[in-house]
Amino acid sequence: MEASAPELPLEQAHGFPMISVVEDNFCVTYSTEVTVNKKYRGLFLNQRYEVLDVNGNLLLQVDGSSLDVRKKRLMRDAAGSPILTMREKINLVTLRHRWMVHRGKSLEEKDLIFGVQRSHPLDMKPRLDVFMATNINEFISSFQLVGSHIDKSCKVYKGETMIAEVIDAYPRSNISKWTESFRVKINAGVDYAFIVALLVILTVNDYI
């Protein structure tokens, strides 16, 4: 029996770069769209994000409380297994806010994946800079998220290349239901859990 050929990396097999930040299995071989539904529930205004594919299947869910001082958010897969934890930290010297994103439920430095910080509080157009764990204290970001719902434009870039964008946003239409949603187009090979994490951070901070 002949041995099978080794499986090629995604970028070699399909001719485009794979951008894996959280995990490889969140990168798909085609351009995809997901819908993110944000809901408020309960007396303490617990927030839940549900991420659905084009067929309405649950891909990811994110939970957290509006009253949490650290704005902690936990992302899980459809089965409920923890993927990553997002929380805000404030530099007491510069008073700059930075989000730190760790694997699973961990908050330990060894499990840090990336950090997110607004480029400058006075910028007219919101921009979030993303710093990978290996480059967390540097000044050059690896990714940028630019725009807002107000501008009806929200895009994620790696360098000069756009890798994802919000293509539709639906504001809260019924205050009794407290729901919002937006649709996101993500390039082939791009980690959709990473893109969703950035958008959750953006919306929690009311930048959009």
From TrEMBL:
SUPFAM superfamilies: Tubby C-terminal domain-like (SSF54518)
Top-level taxon: Eukaryota
Family: Belongs to the LOR family.
Protein name according to UniProt: Protein LURP-one-related 14
Organism: Mucuna pruriens
Lineage: Eukaryota, Viridiplantae, Streptophyta, Embryophyta, Tracheophyta
